[in-house]
Amino acid sequence: MDTERTSVQQASRILVTRRLPSSVLAKLEAAGGVDLYSGDAAIAPDELRARVADKNALVSLLTDAIDRTVIDAAPELKVIANVAVGFNNIDVAYATSRGVVVTHTPDVLTESVADFTWALILAITRRLAEGERVVRSGAWKGWALDFMLGTELNGKQLGLVGVGRIGRAVAARAPVFGMRVVYTEPRDVDLPGAENVSLDRLLNTSDIVSLHVPLLPETRHLIDKKSLARMKRSAYLINTARGPVVDEAALAWALQHHLLAGAALDVYENEPAVHPELLKLDNVLLVPHLASATTETRTAMADLAAENVLAVLAGRPALTPVVLSQR
Ligand code: GLV
After folding, report:
1. If 254 and its partner were Cys, which of 11, 60, 197, 228 is the partner (CB 3.0–4.6 Å)?
2. Ligand 1 pocket test target in 82, 92, 112, 113 with most atoms within 8 Å of CB
3. Is 321 a domain residue?
């Protein structure tokens, strides 16, 4: 063990709120005392406050609400390392004001989430889940020329609401499917062939609308009744960003009234609850927050969180700190 790791070890008390890959836990254990919460569900807020009280590092998941009460409960806390690219579960401004570094896991999940976004686009436009339900229920009567027709992607328009790392990776895959890309962002982005348009125009003209903005006060319910009413009746909405970016009740209403053709959702307003009206609809594909869920990516995310902890505890800059102004 090098001297840096030895000195980290002497001072380190690390709370990990959920089981991580063993290679990652071993790395943290080599650096100091690890207190691992091993329950299957998210740690309860009271227990989180009690267990973080004497720690100087916290490895959190997106299901942990790291609010002022948690930060105040841990006077020696130096770093909160979220195992997620999103950080809406953490009061970053307050943590920063208390001198606590907050880190997240960008880049390592970009390709995995972009692939998954396309999996959702293909699945909803080609009615995969619906078709599977028909086969499993025994209701399939056999091949027919006009049975369960989907929608072609070739020649259509993909509208990306937000083109950070993930939005750009989704855009990069569009030519393979013959789609042109428009996006909406406050500033132009280097995305050859893609046009920056207003949200209104994007909603009005796109065949697929895919959300890639972080959850911020200004993006909460960005997709509400009004914006859904602007979409083409033949269009599909894809959400792999954060549930509250979409008003779920409004989406259920819009789908019931055929204001759009369908939606594919990986994220929900109150996970793991799903709006009961959405559960009744065939033209919505519902999957359980899986966009980054490959063994490779989840391991890389946990590993990056651990490296962030080790860096901060050793007095080095974090590898991937949260920058509050980032989009
Ligand atoms: C997943 O939703 C993440 O933010 O990493």
Report:
1. 228
2. 113
3. no
Q: Is 212 a catalytic residue?
A: no
The CATH number that applies at residue 13 is 3.40.50.720
Residues 268 and 164 in one domain: yes
User: Are 240 and 117 found together in one domain?
Assistant: yes
- Note the residue count of the chain: 327
Residue 260, domain member (yes or no): yes
User: How much is the pLDDT for 11?
Assistant: 55
Q: In Å, what is the CA distance from 186 to each residue of 70, 166, 213?
A: 34, 17, 12
Q: Which residue positions in the chain have pLDDT lower than 50?
A: 1-9, 326-327
CA distance 252 to 284: 9
Where does ligand 1 bind, in terms of residues with CB under 6 Å? 62, 84-86, 109, 292
Angle (CA) 91 21 62, round 5°:
20
- Which DSSP string corresponds to 44-83? PHHHHHHHHTT-SEEEE-TTS-B-HHHHHT-TT--EEEES
Per-residue pLDDT of 175-202, as tens digits, reads 999 999 999 999 999 999 999 999 999 9
Is 289 known to be catalytic? yes
> Do 299 and 266 fall within a single domain?
no
How far are the Cα atoms of 6, 7, 262, 264, 291 from residue 1, in angstroms, in the given order? 7, 10, 55, 48, 36
- Indicate the SS3 state at residue 142: coil
In a domain, 323, yes or no: no
- Same domain for 123 and 212: yes
Catalytic residue (one of 242, 275, 298, 307): 242
Residue 7: its pLDDT value, please? 45
Q: Report the nearest atom of ligand 1 relative to the CA of 289.
A: 2
Task: Report pLDDT for 3.
Answer: 46
Q: What is the pLDDT of residue 31?
A: 87
Same domain, yes or no: 237 and 144: yes
Tell me the CA–centroid distance for residue 57 and ligand 1, in Å.
20
Is 258 in the active site? no
pTM value?
0.94
Give me the domain span that covers residue 125.
Answer: 110-286
Indicate whether 320 belongs to any domain.
no
